[in-house]
Every structure is written in C-alpha cells, then in structure tokens.
Design brief:
The chain is an alpha+beta fold and 166 residues long. It contains four helices and eight strands, in the order H-E-E-E-E-H-H-E-H-E-E-E. The chain has a domain of 101 residues: PAS domain (Beta-Lactamase, 2-Layer Sandwich), CATH 3.30.450.20. The protein is 16% helix and 26% strand. The longest helix is centred in the C-terminal third of the chain and has 9 residues. The mean pLDDT is 85.
C-alpha cells in the first residue's frame, strides 16, 4: 500500500520563476525621479526631465514608476542613489545618504532574518547581477514600529542593487 501511495505522489522540484533562456522584458528609469524615458535608447545617461538622475535599467516588472520610492546600492551596500520619493519616505536628502552604508538608512525589520529575506544577502546577490526578485521587510534606522516592504533586484549599468519600496 505504501508503494502505491508513493508511486502516485509527485516528486518535489524547484520551479524557476523564468524559463531558462527566456529574457525578461527590460525598462529604463531615472535614478532620481523614476520617469521612464520616452526614447528607447537615449543618447544621454542623464535624465532629460529632472536633469538630476542617471538612466538605469532593470526588469520591467520591478522597475520603479515615476514617483515610486527606491534606492540604488553598490556591492559594498553603499547608497548610490535615492529617489525623490525615498528622500521623503526616509526623511533624508540624497546628498546626505550617498556613499553611506545602507544601514544608516535602513535595517531589517526582523533582526534575525536569514536566507533570501536577509537584507545584506539580497543586496549582495542583486549587486552581482542576479535578477531574481527578493522581498524583504525593512524599517528606517533608529525608527521603531514602522515596517516597509521592498523588492530587491539588479539594475545598471553599472551593475547595482535596486530596492523598490511597495
């Protein structure tokens, strides 16, 4: 009887979120205002709308929209860009945050988070070019009782980590 039950039971396997060899649609966005450029391949890397951000690219399903709060981090977990909306959300200025460690702005809401929900691990993988989307729950540093859910994936060029707050 056990043998019959086992033969009907399906085997567990890891199902990739994207079929191998399938490219994800890409979207360009400004690292400051989040506006998506109207031209597919702009000649300038500087945003034509706000003039403050660089044009970056990431997966279309994760790329921020105009007005979304987001951060761009490098592989050392240093802040490279803070969107206008993230400046308001985190009560900071981009000039004060850039080149500072992300933990000066954000910390994991769960101090003991492990695996893919670990902020440092998620950012490190994304900054290396891994385009998997990881969801993490964060809180502003030195602020308790506030929880922010975010998606983390890769963006660039150059390759960096993109944190988009939901």
């Amino acid at each position: 009887m056990d043998r019959a039950l086992n033969s009907r039971r399906g085997a567990l396997s890891l199902v990739p979120s994207v079929a191998p060899g399938t490219a994800q649609p890409r979207a360009s966005f400004c690292s400051h205002c989040g506006i998506r450029p109207e031209v597919e391949n702009p000649t300038s890397r500087v945003c034509g709308r706000c003039g403050l951000g660089l044009i970056l690219e990431s997966r279309a399903d994760v790329a921020p929209a105009a007005g979304d709060p987001f951060l761009v981090l490098d592989s050392t977990l240093a802040v490279c860009a803070v969107s206008r909306a993230a400046e308001r959300l985190l009560v900071t200025n981009e000039t004060d945050a850039v080149n500072h460690h992300v933990t000066e702005l954000l910390v994991p809401a769960d101090a003991e988070a492990q695996g893919p929900t670990n902020l440092a691990a998620a950012v490190t993988w994304a900054a290396r070019g891994d385009e998997a989307v990881r969801r993490v729950v964060l809180r502003p540093a030195n602020t308790f009782g506030v929880r922010l859910t975010a998606r983390i994936t890769s963006c660039g060029p150059p390759t960096a980590a993109l944190i988009v707050f939901e």
